[in-house]
Design a protein that fits this description.
The protein has helices spanning 2-40, 43-46, 48-55, 72-77, 90-95, 109-112, 115-118; strands spanning 63-66, 81-83, 103-106, 121-126, 131-135. It is of the alpha/beta class and 137 residues long.
């Protein structure tokens, strides 16, 4: 019986140490990733909200974005909307009009060069990182 009690205690201590270390190490890792992530960002991303507000003043206006990591542009622009892939079909792109989406924000030049898409987009703002287009029929 004494061996059983000793075994229980021997398992409790490592479990307690692990239970304490997991949240602490998780916080340290998250802070490190956040700090490293902000340093790696282009300054244009950090001023994105201010720049986009010049061309899309209504913060409730829905936008769609094309970026390599989904929702980064939406996050830094402080906007509501959807993320789409740059290889979206023309039929799917045209459906977006039904959702009252009038602006597209893109950080890729591949989408911008697609001739079949450009006929429905008017450029309203461009810098080294992004392009903003007004979508029309």
């Amino acid at each position: 019986m004494q061996q059983l009690n000793e075994r229980k205690w021997s398992l409790k201590y490592p479990a307690l140490v692990i239970a304490i270390l997991i949240p602490v190490l998780g916080c340290i890792r998250a802070l490190d990733r956040l700090e490293r992530g902000i340093k790696d960002l282009s300054p244009e991303y950090l001023s994105l909200e201010k720049e986009i507000s010049k061309v899309i003043p209504d913060r409730n206006e829905l936008v769609i974005v094309i970026d390599e990591s989904p929702s980064n542009l939406l996050y830094f622009a402080h906007r509501k909307g959807w993320h789409i892939k740059e290889d979206i079909s023309l039929a799917e792109f045209n459906k977006l009009w039904r959702y009252n989406i009038r602006y597209l924000i893109s950080d890729t030049r591949n989408f911008d060069s697609r001739e079949e898409m450009r006929q429905f987009m008017k450029p309203v703002y461009t810098n080294d990182v992004i392009s903003v287009y007004e979508i029309y029929k």
